[in-house]
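User: two proteins, same treatment. go.

Assistant:
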Amino acid sequence: MTLLQLIARADERGLATSGVACLDRLLPPPEAGDDPEPLRPLWAACESGADWAGRLDAVHAVLEGPAGSDATAARVRALLGSAPRDFGAEPLRAWADACSVLALEVHREFDVPAGDGGGTSGHRDGGAAHAGPLAAGEVHRQTEILESLAETTGAAGLRRALDLSTEGRRVLRAVVSRRARGRGRAGDASLR
C-alpha cells in the first residue's frame, strides 16, 4: 500500500502519531537547557487523544522559544498551531498529510542530489524508487509507522513509531551536520 493510501485509511491514533512523528524528526537539536524532546507530551496523547488540545497548546508554547528560530522550525510551529483540537480521524487526516509533505520536502532539500526525484506527491503515491536516499528513507519510515500502528494496539505501536522517528531524526541531523562541515560554515545547512 502506498503512503497516501495508508494516510487515507488510518484512524485517529495513526494519524496523530504519524503527524507528531514527522514533526519530531524535523526539530533542530536543542540548545543547552532546552527540553531535548519537546513533543513528548503529544506522543503521550496519541494513544487515546487524552488532553490532545491542551498538550498541543503546551508544546506550541515551548517551541515559541529560542529552540525554534529557523525556517523549518517555524514551519513545524505553524503546523502545530494548525493542528485540529478535535481528536478525530477526519480533522487529523489533513493535518497528518501536511506533516508528511513537510517532512518529505525537508528531506528532499538535504538529499543527494538536492531535491532530485520529482515532487513529494509522487514519492507518497508509490514513486519513492525515484527519490534520493534521504527522501526514500523518509517515505519508508512514514509507511512503516502507519503500518505498525494499523497492526498493533496499545503502547507497542507507539513505541515502534517513536523508535523509528528517533532513528530518522538522527539520520537527518547527521546529514545536516555533514553538509555544514563540508561547506565549512554551520550556517550553510541547518535545521536551526
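Protein 2:
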Amino acid sequence: MILIDLLKAVARQIEGFVRHDLKCDEETAYDAVIDVLYAYVEAPGRYDPDRARLVTYLTKAAKHRVQDRLKSGASRAQREENFASVVELGQSAPKDILENFVEASRAVERLEKRLSERDLAVVRLILSGESSTEALARALGLNPSSQEEMRREVKRHRDRLMKILERLGKEDPDDPA
C-alpha cells in the first residue's frame, strides 16, 4: 500500500513537471507518465543511477514522449489539412461534371457510328484496362494458328483502334459527325 502511494506521488510530481514545462494538457501528460512508468517496470536496466536521479530520468523520458505526441499530432493535422485542400481543389463543379458527361456521351455516339460491334467490344476492353492478348483476340473473334500470329493480329487491330480514338479526340466535339 505504501509503495502504491509512493508511485502515485511520483507520477503526480512528474506529471506536474511535464505540464508546467511543456504547457500540455493533463491527459497528454498523464498518458506520457503512465507509458514511461510501464516502460521502466518492463526494462529497469535502462536507468543508470550514476547519471541522474530516478525522478529526473522518468521526467525527461515523459517529456520526450509528450514532445513526440505533439509533433505527431501536428504532422497529422498538417497531413489532414493538405489532404483536405487537395480534395477541395480536385472536386469538379456540377456544371463541369454535366458537361463532361454530355461530351463523353457524344463521343460514344460517334464511336458507335464508326465502329462495328466487335471493335466496340475491344475498345471497351482496352478502356477498362484489359491488356491480355488472348482476351482481345477472343473479342476480335480471331483464331490464328500460332501465338505469334495472334499477337501480330491483336497489335494490328489495337493500333488501328487507337488511331481511330486519337482522331476522334482531335475532332471538334461541336461539329456533328
